[in-house]
Amino acid sequence: MKLQVRGIEEGQPIPEKFAFGVYSEEDHMSFGPNRNPEITWEDAPEGTKSFVVMMFDPDVPSVADDVNQEGKTVSKDLPRVDFFHWLLVDIPANVNRIPEGEDSDGVSPKGKDHGPGPIGVRGVNNYTQFLAGNPDMAGTYAGYDGPCPPWNDEIIHHYQFEVHALDVESLGLEGEFDGNDVRQAMKGHVLDSARVTGTYTLNPDLR
């Protein structure tokens, strides 16, 4: 399979229009346009009955104590974990494109609805946990929400856009399912996959 993420070249920085957070000299970070990029895929194998689209960041600090704290940095030596930014399942086999802005166009305080969306079924991304302690933003975040890595992180983050062709029409996931639920449900059903990786940082020393 081949995957194209329009505006994002392999290994290159992700444009700010696709980001949840953009660099700000005054406050380190301000909200970005948060539009999902257009993605297209082709050459799905015979027998494909549905697709899964996901985007995740494998470079998120496993301990958040120093995240976005003045006078501190998030060490490059800290163990990292996956943070899911976009989960769409049960995308019909006759679909091979998601237009820019179709699943997100702006930051939605308190999140977007999970369940059936414009294309496929939306899973819950990890902003749900990340913003849980913020009374203005806390909620259930589903669909696409773009990059917003810690502005004091010593490493550049890598964002993996993936499409998976499956041999089932539905993964049978309901409610507030997350990235780990999707990975578990996909096991044994993936016919082929493709990936594009973009980078992003809010650390002025790395920009």
Automatic annotation (TrEMBL):
<feature type="region of interest" description="Disordered">
    <location>
        <begin position="99"/>
        <end position="118"/>
    </location>
</feature>
<protein>
    <recommendedName>
        <fullName>Phospholipid-binding protein, PBP family</fullName>
    </recommendedName>
</protein>
<dbReference type="InterPro" id="IPR005247">
    <property type="entry name" value="YbhB_YbcL/LppC-like"/>
</dbReference>
<dbReference type="Pfam" id="PF01161">
    <property type="entry name" value="PBP"/>
</dbReference>
<dbReference type="InterPro" id="IPR008914">
    <property type="entry name" value="PEBP"/>
</dbReference>
<dbReference type="InterPro" id="IPR036610">
    <property type="entry name" value="PEBP-like_sf"/>
</dbReference>
